[in-house]
């Protein structure tokens, strides 16, 4: 509806409309008698998808810290929000009863150790007794061999005595007598001659004495030979026979004694072996008792170590559910003074945070692990990363959760705060125009471009949409000014005059992505 009239004064107004922390621009218009339109300067923009998602920040990891033994809380040192390091003491339990139990356990261990030492000593004694008995068996065997040799010799001697002299022995004895008789006869003749000569003074007294001594020796030799001959001819006497028999009997007694000693020593070995077996059984029993006592003691020592509650990891105390005087059980706060059964402490890592974003199941295919997501908290914007896509759909909402992790080195973002999120679909940039700026009622879509104050119909090629904006693939250039509001009221060639700065001008904060201006369209 164009009307040309030279009498109409065209009021030109310029209002710069800028946005803060949002991709949706806000504008302010000066109302005139003409239709108001708004245009924007074409710029390159990141092709992002803003889903207007939100989620609650949580610690990257939460570690419950629980007591591992029951008792009464005597001190609590941790507070919610406090930064703690791994191993820091958070609370302690009363140890009086455990210390008494430990004293009893120490006594039981000492008694068991004494029993074990006694059993070991008994084993050593039994082993020594066995060695002594074995040595006795060895000695008795030697005695038996000696006695057996003696009895053989005694029997040979007895047999010789009982059998008498042999013919050869008798002949030898007779020859000895004959030789002795001949020597005696010669000595007697010589002694008689020497005596006669000495009486006549023909021999010295010494020579005569020598002859007499030789006669005496010959006489003795003859008598010995005659006695041996007599014994040989007569045989052994009764006393000799008795002595030979006694020697045999004595040797037999030696054998019997040696055998008895061997049997006794063997019995000693068997008794010692039984003592060894009994001592070994006693050692095993004492060792089992000692091991049980040590295990019982170690359990108490372990329980004592559990009376000090320490942080399992470094982080921030997120929850505290325990107080002094409270009775706790192993594994929980016990429901004492705090009146609950939750973990005494929960420690979280807050140098990294995570947030679950509910994604419509129809859009989940556009999300991938590793993609970057923009998270904003008030005026602070950070880049997070998709670390997990949950496999199940929420039955009540029909959405699927995407877990996003964001670094929080200063720990100025806190668990429990709500953040807004948008995801960058691509790293590319392009020209984006609001949907209302593109007119597509005909065969080809077009926009109105400001060319030296004239509205110029410009055909464009439209691509994908991003957050209610079209990607313009062709038809526009960086720096072009395009009408974004009121384009449906324009015709090709309408005048767009930039007003001077006077009257009431309303402005908004400037954004970093686009500037929008409002002008008046007229003939």
UniProtKB/TrEMBL annotation:
Residues 1-22 form the signal peptide. Keywords: Coiled coil, Signal. It comes from the Bacteria. Residues 494-523 are annotated as: Disordered. Residues 432-496 form the YknX-like C-terminal permuted SH3-like domain. InterPro entries: Beta-barrel_RND_2, HH_YbhG-like, RND_pump_MFP, YknX-like_C. Pfam families: Beta-barrel_RND_2 (PF25954), HH_YBHG (PF25881), YknX_C (PF25989). Residues 494-511 have a biased composition (Polar residues). Belongs to the membrane fusion protein (MFP) (TC 8.A.1) family. This is Efflux RND transporter periplasmic adaptor subunit. It comes from Paenibacillus nicotianae.
């Amino acid at each position: 509806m164009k009307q040309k009239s030279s009498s109409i004064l065209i009021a030109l107004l310029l209002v710069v409309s800028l946005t803060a922390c949002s991709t949706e621009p806000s504008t302010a218009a000066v109302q005139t008698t003409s239709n108001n339109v708004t245009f924007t300067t074409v710029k390159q923009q990141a092709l992002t998808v803003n889903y207007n998602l939100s989620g609650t920040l949580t610690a990257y990891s939460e570690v419950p810290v629980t007591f591992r033994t029951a008792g009464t809380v005597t001190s609590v040192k941790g507070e919610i929000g406090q930064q703690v390091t791994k191993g820091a003491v958070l609370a302690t339990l009363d140890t009086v009863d455990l210390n008494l139990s430990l004293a009893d356990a120490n006594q039981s261990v000492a008694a068991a150790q004494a029993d074990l030492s006694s059993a070991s000593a008994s084993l050593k004694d039994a082993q020594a007794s066995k060695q002594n008995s074995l040595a006795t068996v060895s000695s008795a065997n030697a005695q038996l061999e000696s006695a057996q040799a003696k009895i053989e010799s005694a029997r040979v001697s007895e047999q010789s005595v009982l059998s008498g002299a042999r013919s050869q022995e008798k002949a030898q004895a007779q020859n000895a007598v004959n030789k002795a008789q001949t020597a005696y006869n010669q000595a007697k003749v010589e002694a008689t001659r020497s005596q006669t000569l000495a009486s006549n003074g023909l021999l010295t007294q010494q020579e005569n004495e020598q002859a007499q001594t030789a006669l005496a020796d010959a006489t003795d030799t003859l008598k010995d030979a005659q006695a041996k001959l007599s014994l040989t001819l007569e045989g052994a006497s009764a006393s000799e026979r008795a002595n030979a028999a006694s020697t045999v009997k004595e040797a037999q007694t030696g054998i019997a004694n040696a055998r008895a000693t061997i049997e006794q020593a063997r019995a000693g070995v068997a008794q010692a072996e039984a003592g060894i077996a009994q001592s070994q059984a006693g050692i095993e029993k004492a060792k089992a008792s000692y091991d049980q006592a040590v295990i019982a003691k170690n359990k108490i020592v372990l329980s004592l170590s559990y009376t000090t509650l320490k942080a399992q990891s470094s982080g921030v105390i997120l929850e505290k559910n325990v107080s002094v005087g409270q009775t706790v059980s192993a594994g929980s706060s016990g429901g004492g003074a705090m009146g609950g059964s939750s973990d005494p402490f929960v420690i979280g890592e807050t140098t990294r945070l995570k947030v679950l974003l509910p994604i419509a199941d129809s859009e989940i295919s556009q999300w991938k692990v590793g993609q970057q997501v923009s998270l904003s908290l008030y005026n602070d914007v950070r880049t997070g990363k998709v670390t997990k896509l949950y496999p199940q759909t929420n039955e009540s909402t029909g959405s699927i959760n995407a877990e996003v992790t964001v670094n929080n080195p200063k720990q100025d973002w806190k668990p429990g705060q709500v953040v807004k999120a948008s995801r960058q679909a691509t790293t590319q940039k392009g020209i984006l125009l609001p949907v209302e700026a593109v007119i597509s009622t005909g065969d080809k879509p077009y926009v109105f471009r400001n060319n030296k104050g004239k509205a110029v119909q410009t055909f464009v090629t439209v691509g994908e949409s991003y957050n209610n904006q079209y990607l313009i693939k062709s038809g526009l250039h960086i720096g072009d000014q395009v009408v974004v509001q009121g384009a449906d009221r324009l015709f090709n060639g309408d005048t767009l005059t930039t007003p001077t700065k006077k009257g009431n001008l309303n402005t908004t904060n400037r954004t970093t992505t686009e500037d929008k201006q409002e002008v008046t369209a007229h003939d």
